[in-house]
Specification:
25% strand, three-stranded antiparallel sheet, 270 residues, alpha/beta
Length: 270
């Protein structure tokens, strides 16, 4: 009886060891597979699936022919070209971008996403491809909001889940209103439902000029932003290739040409 019991225990113990070894190998294989997943997929399909909002001129938006264009589109096309593939664009609401990336609905987000420590917990980022910053925007007849502390007691419009929201909430007493689309809070500012909005200097300078908006930028940069391309974790090889393509663009002048095309100025240094 005891002898049989000992044999049973030894058998169970050995099965446990074998099973444990098998699990470790499988984990290692899964890790290796996920680490090369995106790059392998792109090389096989010859398509780079790029996500952005698609409603954020001059960065990414639909033109009169229902074709995507903008700074992000030109950057994406050039990176895809250097990778030997074609860019395919997928418009996604801002609050669904990271979730869609993690669900493998697309390969990369190239859509003006600021690199933050919080976002780094969910995704990895390439080297920054834009250095820009947040500014205050008011109506043309407003003269008392020129620095960040001036938004105290004011109705402030910002995009929910953006770094602009963080900047606005850093001022105690600011009445911060959250929006899903930048066009909505630009309209509310114009219609006097807001006192001020916070957004990117490049975006607002372009939109005020392009659309003859009765608005103005009233501050210097209140918060500098480094904009990166977001990629699923575990794809270091893919990030290396994208960074290499971006570096080549800056060396051969392609990046500067695209930047000047959309903003008319030299890129902002760190």
């Amino acid at each position: 009886m005891k002898k049989n019991l000992i044999l049973v225990l030894i058998t169970i113990f050995m099965i446990g060891i074998i099973a444990g070894c098998g699990t470790d190998n499988e984990k290692g294989q899964e890790k290796e597979s996920s680490g090369k997943g995106v790059l392998d997929r792109i090389e096989k399909s010859k398509v780079l699936n790029v996500a952005f909002e698609g409603t954020y001129p001059p960065f990414n938006f639909l033109n009169d022919k229902d074709e995507f264009q903008g700074f992000d589109v030109d950057i994406s096309n050039e990176i895809a070209n250097k990778l030997g593939v074609k860019a395919n664009f997928i418009a996604t609401k801002w609050d669904g971008l990271i979730g869609g990336l993690k669900a493998d609905k697309f390969d990369i987000i190239i859509g003006q996403m600021t690199v933050t420590e919080e976002r780094k917990k969910s995704v990895d980022f390439t080297d920054p491809y834009v250095i820009t910053g947040s500014v205050l925007i008011t109506r043309e007849d407003t003269d008392d909001i020129t620095k960040l502390e001036d938004i105290k007691g004011k109705k402030v419009g910002v995009g929910g889940g953006t770094t602009f929201e963080e900047v606005a909430n850093s001022v105690e007493g600011a009445d911060v209103k959250l929006y899903k689309a930048v066009s909505d809070y630009i309209q509310d500012l114009t219609n006097k439902r807001l006192d001020v909005i916070i957004n990117d200097q490049l975006l607002m300078a372009y939109n005020i000029k392009e659309n003859s908006l009765p608005l103005k930028i009233t501050s210097d940069i209140v918060n500098k932003d480094e904009i990166g391309m977001a990629v699923n974790k575990g794809n270091e090889d893919f990030i290396t290739e994208v960074n290499k393509a971006l570096s080549e663009m800056k060396e051969d002048g392609t990046y500067n040409d695209i930047y000047k095309k959309w903003f008319g100025t030299e890129p902002l240094d760190k």
